[in-house]
User: Fold this.
Amino acid sequence: MRVTASRVIGWPARLMHRRTRLTISIVVIVLLLLAGAIYLRKKAPPEAARLLPESDGILYADLRPLRAATHLDQHPVRHDPEYQKFIDATGIEVERDLDEVAFALHRMDDPHGPNGPVAFSEVFVGHFDGRKLAQYLSSVASSTETYAGHTIYSVPNDGRTVRVTLLGYDMVAASNTPSAEQIHSILDRHRTAALPFTGSSLLAAHYADVPLLSLAWGLGQIGLPLSDDGSDMKVMGLSLPMTPQATFVASLGWAGKTRLRVEEIAPDEAAAKAATDSMTNLLNLARTLMNGNANDSSERDIQALVNSAKMEQRKNRAILTATIPTDFLQRLVSPPAQPGANPQNDQK
Assistant:
């Protein structure tokens, strides 16, 4: 076979061209995988919520936007003596250092027991000094347990035991359920926290119903008696049919204004229509009673909230939407003024 000079010279160029195409292909594949991972992460529940154990309800809040909108960390708060001891020992101030909270609600079989009708499991994300917090927990704990490489501190509190463990430098978990099953579950889930769609069955079933980019949300069934005789709950004489079988998804979002959305997923369309009609009647009655009777800014904010509320039905879902005035939201999170309080002393 005859080999020409042009073939010998062109071979390295063709090889480099192939390598360049291969490199570009690899880069494109990696970028697509990263984009997919980012997309899945945005669609996945927050890690704090994914760590929660099986429960009847879940509440979650990202406090950072709320803090920025209301300047919560700038409001001086007078602390009771016990909480002040906690602050002095750990350096943690909730209004300043807590970034995310996630609560699991566990309905108790005996509502008259030490936990009352509901027990809680929590995951907190924020800025913590782990060494100081561990020292404080050791000083107040009645016993400790090691599980999955973590120390669980059992702290007596009002006839119950609160189990607390440090999951990492910025994350703490706690549970006041009667057994250690729930705190163990949190630690077990922590091992697989990198998987974006792990979590409880309630979260898997209904997190898709939470609007994207919600700052705070809750979901679950009421599951509690609505009246002594089992009939519909009544407000101002109007029936409000909320059955224990209905699942509720509530959320707060920001789109220029703070938006409240409460969705009732009823057993059927008839139940959703009844809930929509009842809430519409209640809102109309409230508007009539409040019309022109607002005496101060707080009442005017409530009137604006009620006036903005709307009900609609989508098949078996009854949906309430409303706009929360910023001033009203700030008043909700601001501590009430206390006689004799000195803000300068409180900030020291």
Summary: The radius of gyration is 27 Å. The CA atoms of residues 125 and 171 lie 5 Å apart.
